[in-house]
Write the structure tokens for this entry.
Amino acid sequence: MRASDSPKSKDQDRSAVRRLLVTTGVLAFTAAVGGVALFPLILGRMFTSDDDYSRISDIGQSYGAASAMVSTVALGVVLVGLVMQYRQFTSGRHEALSAMTDELVRLAMDEPAYRQCWGARIAPTDVDEALFYYCNRVIKSWKIAWELRDLSEAQARGYLANFFDSEIPRLFWKEHGNWHMQAKARNRREQFLALIEEEYLRAIRGGDPSRPRELSPPAGIAARARRRRLLDADQDNTHPTVP
């Protein structure tokens, strides 16, 4: 693949085109408004006599056409503003949905009993499901940073290379990644998923991970211990300390 065909280069090209279109529109609108504003002054200096009404009429029609052009450009600016507002509204809805999903995942991580409400197990029977839930949140945080362009391709590849040097993330992506889909990436989110797949396959070809699966206490026991520590801390705070 050529450098010009990379997702980063295409995003830069699209950004440059958008900036060029916006700049051209602003310049055209400014020129049109300036022409309409100065046209009466030019008309007055060119024609000081009221004898040639036909030529003045022709110039007046030209002035009307310029006014119509300005109105059209102004309408276009209003439409662009409405489109931007709609995108902001849609983005707000996506953020609210994402926050709600994060809360559901957090509850499932804290209370293992809630996980059965999601359906079948998301991890093999010998793997704590909380590890897969956590892997999903890690990838989601990187995906958001990628979509906001706060994460470069080099940084993402570095994070993912380290991520897949552990056995649990490899198991997670094997079970829930969409690496088997060969469809062409159409947007930035799908580009990031394709990038994850590339690093996953690179890690698989590199051999066994340096960090094998580690045994951990059952999630229910860990959650109960955590709640017990919180309750003990609250009780300690409610009793005054005797000097």
Notes: The radius of gyration is 31 Å. The CA atoms of residues 213 and 224 lie 23 Å apart. The chain is about 70% helix and 0% strand. The chain has two domains: 3-95, 120-243.
